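so im writing up the methods section and need the Protein of uncharacterized function (DUF3279) record in one place, dumping it here so i stop losing it
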Amino acid sequence: MPKINILRVKQYLALDADNHYVPAKEVNPGTDNLWRCPDCHCPVRLQDNIIGEDAWFEHLQPTEITKADVSKCGYIRAEIRRQAFLLRLRALVDSMDTINPVTHWFCVWCNTHYRGEKHCKTCKTGIYSISRRDWSWNYNQPEGKSNSGNKATAQIPPPSDR
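--- predicted struct ---
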């Protein structure tokens, strides 16, 4: 994963010299006023030179004086939490098994094995088809076992002649 510069968090509000909130899209391009972060009050700069994107503010490189304040900034801490969440999510997704599409089918209605799309050409439907894996699992179970695990099914005695 590429390294993210945490200070480049996009903020769309800043405080001006009079401590008034200023939206980034309302600032005149090329203005060199001093703006501050509304959370940590550290200096931020206007980024308005990206074509096709709205203007935003981002933190300046912290000095020794502002380093402690920037580390407590809610905007930056939220971005750090977001990046940590994305890393955990990416690791979780990467560890998951891939799903392979089913290509082998067995139609229980007409007892036909076929491959490809789930549509039996003999009975002209796919509603009665199960995957080969499910079909072979079913036939490899011991006598008297159900599909739901190790519980024995009720045994029906054969009809007796009277």
